[in-house]
Amino acid sequence: MYSLFVRVRLSLALLVAMVLLSGCSAARFWFGKKRPPRATVKVPQFVGTVTLVSDDPLFVLIDNGSLPPPSAGTVLTIDNQGGTPVEMKVTRIQKPPFVVADIVKGTPKKGDRVFR
Q1: Phi, psi at residue 101, to the nearest 5°?
Q2: Alpha carbons 114 and 87: distance in angstroms, whole number
Q3: Which of 3, 42, 100, 114 is the most buried (most CB within 10 A)?
Q4: What's the pLDDT at 1?
């Protein structure tokens, strides 16, 4: 009688442990499949304004104020309304609150708003 009681308790304990330790497969069984992720819309992030445009080596100086500076290699854009978009690449040269970016495409102007 005592050994039957011990066997039942041990079996129950093993069954509970199996269910609890089965992880995600048990959750999928009980709660169904995962839903697909929602489509996210990428909103351009404001980086700063163009302070200086250099013609000899093609680069711009961007004043980003108190915003965190973009990391080196980040592609930045200026969307000139009606004109060709400007594309720039951030260099490793940074002296807060200014960031230097090489011009890849287009012609930026002083005062243009820069976005990531």
Answers
A1: -135, 135
A2: 10
A3: 114
A4: 58
**Which pLDDT belongs to residue 74?**
93
pLDDT recorded at residue 25: 62
Per the structure block, which two tokens stand in for 114? 């820069």
Identify the segments of the chain with pLDDT beneath 70.
1-2, 21-34, 82
Domain ranges of the chain: 2-31, 46-115
- Judged on CB neighbours under 10 Å (0-12, 13-18, 19+), 84 is exposed
Nearest Cα residue to 108 out of 65, 68, 52, 64: 52
CA distance 94 to 91: 8
Residue 103 in contact with residue 95, Cβ under 8 Å? no
- Tell the burial category of 60 from Cβ atoms under 10 Å away from its Cβ (0-12, 13-18, 19+): buried
Rounded to an integer, what is the distance from CA 15 to the centroid of its chain? 43
CATH, range 46-115: 2.40.10.170
